[in-house]
């Protein structure tokens, strides 16, 4: 493999040119200093004239995760629409240009200079459109639309279970090949409860079916998940070759910056590799200052400001 820079030092051009395996190596080399910011693609942006992915990138995110992205009907609000909008409701007429219809992950990556991923969900309830389901066909379409990583997980009340995630990962990996990064796990209960979150046997099976990055809810973000469990799960994931991303996906991304700073430092004590900050702020993303506070706590102002400014 061609030698890559730490994600801390890579330029936008390098980040968006890396293959999946190169990007994983770049993340691994950064030693727990990678920030992943999630945004909802279907809601108006927090700031007019600027999309939420652009804003998240500007405040220190290394990777962008697009929630509710539909591979059959791609759109990212805040970007100019690229195709006509079918069946546009009357109240939205005149606003077509701002709805980002037809904008794909590739366009988001080109504008922001960041690797881009999407969520796909093995949902058991009728709350997920066909283009957001975790299927092999959708993962292939995602790759064709410029996605760098696919996260197999579940939004609230979708009925996603760990067993469903494991089952679908095998077929997705077989369909997309070895290079596309696959992340998998749950950020919260997804409507199925949290009494039994994850076993070490399941961690081994997730790795066996092709997962590169295991998602785990950060301690204190869901009931019953504590630091002792995180250390055990992270060690088990590392032993079978996976990286680990700790997630903040229970609306605490909209809490005080001091909470994000605490979560960052304690997560590093537990040994995680990537740090996710969710989309539940004011309008489909965390408050920008929280993304920056999270980043500064993980890697200091030097590396944070470099990521914010570097082209």
From TrEMBL:
- List the Pfam families hit by this protein, alphabetically: DUF7916
The name on file for this protein is: DUF7916 domain-containing protein
Q: Which organism is it from?
A: Polycladomyces abyssicola
All copies of domain DUF7916, residue ranges = 8-310
The organism's superkingdom is given as: Bacteria
Q: Which InterPro entries match?
A: DUF7916, GH, RibuloseP-bd_barrel
